[in-house]
């Protein structure tokens, strides 16, 4: 492809990016809100064009224009300092749910990798309770029985945690640790994220199957069902972000692996912000609502249904008009 053909083929994209950047800087006025997702897509595409122009030794004027465009776009996207309540609102109301939908392929894969071991191990351990020892040791199994036996003042509380606030701190540390494993291990070409998703799913399924078989099902499910809407969703989304990181290393496209990793990390960080918020909500619900013995199980199931519907509706519907 000659430089003239290359320029004619992609000029419209460059002109559109230049126009949108002008609107961002306030030089031009747009009738509609500036589509941030479109700016980001054009920026990534122009970066690829710049790399091709350099590799093919195209004329300096062409390379210079692409360098200027990518530099201005990078400045507009990544170096704007827009903090405060307005930026927080945009993150919660638009950026996070849009990022989840934009990475829906990774989200569905992460969901399958988590849910299938949950169902399989749950059924196997229910049919053969001794298989729980392949997941935890005998002492841990006995501790889980005690925690969900219904004889304790608070359901699911550890022996060395005497207050709900102590459990709140424990849940934050524990849950964020799980999510970080699922995300950061994506650097191992995505295999680490797949492993931790499957392992956590298998652990949860085995525990559910064992406690159900032992007759503690009502206590266990009424405890986990509400905060699981936030906690399990967050773990799956963290795994999805890890898979995005891993895929960028396996298939960087026209970018170098380092460039692809940087781009994937910038895309995934919005999901991680949302994951952190979900885990904080989950920890609060688990410590102060799920463990409460005074709340009837039927009420917990009703609130859980509202939470699950709200979380799924938020991720699938919120922010669509802004996109």
What does this structure look like?
By secondary structure, this protein is mainly alpha-helical. It folds into two domains: 3-80, no CATH class; 88-317, no CATH class. The chain is built from eleven helices and no strands. The radius of gyration is 24 Å and the shape is elongated.
Features:
323 residues, mainly alpha, 0% strand, elongated
Quick structural summary:
This protein has helices spanning 3-25, 36-55, 60-78, 85-102, 104-127, 138-147, 164-184, 191-213, 217-250, 257-290, 297-317.
Succession of helices and strands: HHHHHHHHHHH
Calculate the mean pLDDT score and round it.
88
Instruction: State the end-to-end distance.
Output: 35 Å
Radius of gyration: 24 Å
Roughly what fraction of the amino acids lie in strands? under 5%
The global form is elongated
Strand-helix topology:
Layout lengths: L2 H23 L10 H20 L4 H19 L6 H18 L1 H24 L10 H10 L16 H21 L6 H23 L3 H34 L6 H34 L6 H21 L6
Helix pairs in contact: 1-2, 1-3, 2-3, 4-10, 4-11, 5-8, 5-9, 7-8, 7-9, 7-10, 8-9, 9-10, 9-11
């Amino acid at each position: 492809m000659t430089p003239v053909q290359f320029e004619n083929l992609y000029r419209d994209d460059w002109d559109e990016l230049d126009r949108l950047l002008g609107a961002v800087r306030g030089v031009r006025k747009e009738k509609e809100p500036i589509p941030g997702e479109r700016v980001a897509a054009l920026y990534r595409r122009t970066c690829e064009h710049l790399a091709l122009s350099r590799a093919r030794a195209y004329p300096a004027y062409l390379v210079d224009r692409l360098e200027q465009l990518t530099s201005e776009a990078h400045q507009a996207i990544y170096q704007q300092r827009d903090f405060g309540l307005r930026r927080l609102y945009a993150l919660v109301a638009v950026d996070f749910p849009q990022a989840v939908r934009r990475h829906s392929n990774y989200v569905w894969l992460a969901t399958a990798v988590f849910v299938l071991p949950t169902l399989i191990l749950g059924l196997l351990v229910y049919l053969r309770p001794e298989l729980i020892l392949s997941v935890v040791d005998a002492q841990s199994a006995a501790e889980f029985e005690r925690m969900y036996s219904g004889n304790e003042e608070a359901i699911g509380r550890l022996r060395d945690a005497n207050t709900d606030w102590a459990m709140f701190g424990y849940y934050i540390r524990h849950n964020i640790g799980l999510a970080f494993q699922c995300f950061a291990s994506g650097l191992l070409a995505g295999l680490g994220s797949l492993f931790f998703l499957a392992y956590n799913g298998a652990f949860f399924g085995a525990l559910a199957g064992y406690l159900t078989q032992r007759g503690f099902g009502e206590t266990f499910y009424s405890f986990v069902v509400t905060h699981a809407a936030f906690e399990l969703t967050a773990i799956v989304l963290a795994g999805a972000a890890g898979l995005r990181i891993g895929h960028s290393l396996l298939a960087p496209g026209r970018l170098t692996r380092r460039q692809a990793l940087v781009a994937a990390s910038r895309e995934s960080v919005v999901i991680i912000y949302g994951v952190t918020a979900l885990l904080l909500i989950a920890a609060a619900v688990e410590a102060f609502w799920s463990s409460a013995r005074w709340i009837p199980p039927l009420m917990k199931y009703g609130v859980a249904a509202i939470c699950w519907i709200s979380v799924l509706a938020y991720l699938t519907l919120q922010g669509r008009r802004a996109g």
